[in-house]
Amino acid sequence: MSVIKKEHLIESVADALQFISYYHPLDFIQALEKAYNKEQSQAAKDAMAQILINSRMSAEGHRPICQDTGIVTAFVKIGMNVQWETDMTVQEMVDEGIRRAYNNADNPLRASIVADPAGARKNTKDNTPGVVHIEMVPGDKVEVMVAAKGGGSENKSKMVMLNPSDDIADWVEKTVPLMGAGWCPPGMLGIGIGGTAEKAAVMAKESLMDPVDIHELRERGAQTTDEKLRLEIMDRVNRLGIGAQGLGGLTTVLDIKIKSCPTHAASKPVVMIPNCAATRHTHFTLDGSGPAQLKAPRIEDWPEVTFEVGDNARRVNVDTLTQAEMQEWKMGETVLLSGKILTGRDAAHKRIKELIDSGAGLPEGVDFNGRFIYYVGPVDAVGDEVVGPAGPTTSTRMDKFTDFMLEKTGLMGMIGKAERGPATVESIKNHKAVYLMAVGGAAYLVAKAIKQAKVVAFEDLGMEAIYEFEVEDMPVTVAVDSSGANAHEQGPAIWRANIADENALN
Known about the structure:
fumarase, five-stranded mixed beta barrel, four-stranded mixed sheet, 15 helices, 24% strand
């Protein structure tokens, strides 16, 4: 019989969450490198290069891969012969581990969890509570799988109750394009099949804890229904041409994970949960001998990848930019931004609209006229940093405010990740504005372009406060230009056709 002390679980969870904040699983990096090497779409290849470079930088600097350090999910499998030495529940011990990890002074992680989700949505300040799944299993050990899941990918989860005769791969192929690019592909899709609705969801999430092994499966050949389905869905999704960051390309998913279990004869519940390019998870076992010892990967195992913007990149000083100059920018063009930009996310947009509608006006020091807004909630700075990792959040969530912001504030352009809705694209066209895309999953790399940062309004909103950033050569792509040309529509359409033509020739 093993005796597991509470401090050993708490310390192990805290260490694991710090570990996964800056170390990608190597199997994921190796799969991404393969996809990068075979990619033919330059936009997708550049995005993957930034993700790979960012991953290596984070591993070397022990700073978060992504500014969204996620909601914590833990699968805790407790041996029937385990004895606990604790005055806390398993949930309480995991939450204390989360609290310590996210408040670590050397590498503080962004607190994103809000209580009272249907009401005040007040930040809990320490990223607790986590979502903990407990299972009793044979043996005398405790096995723990810990993941930190970003909101952009979690928000794209899909659930359906299919008829028994319905085709699962058909549903996935139809559904993935509806998810947009807010889940930051290329990543993985976890699929749970069977049981009941909630069981399918838990299986889908747990499947994402498995290693990337689709290439090995393809080489040895599928033997079960689930394995055959993994390969079929992998091929069908990649033929959609969505590509890295939704810009069009050969690789949209790096692996498909499936867990299934028996279900009612009248039912076929299916849940699909994507994992983004900031895939973060690790496993450890406690046997009573002490806290888990996580082995750091070798930096030498990361690929040596470079990202060059090229001679055609447009360097722009946003402090002096005119709308006439901006109208020369074309969809797909690389722009290097320098100068001062403001930030703002969901809560800030909501408050801005309330202030303007009430006649109170914007706070002192906040003027969007002729300026750019960056959709971001950065991690706190440490050491000599001016700001912590500061990658973009999903722009689609700000669509409901965009026409108002362009009309009422004189905003010139926006920076974020993923696609904009049709009405927002039309508003951008009508106002002769632009939407620029930064790479999701490259937060530490993006932060290096930020030379100064200060909070200028709504400090009480924490990471959702309005900052003023001074940037230098911040790389972005023109996703929607002032004429309404949209990279997230045209890129995938082009590559879907290219892939279809190539398949027709083979």
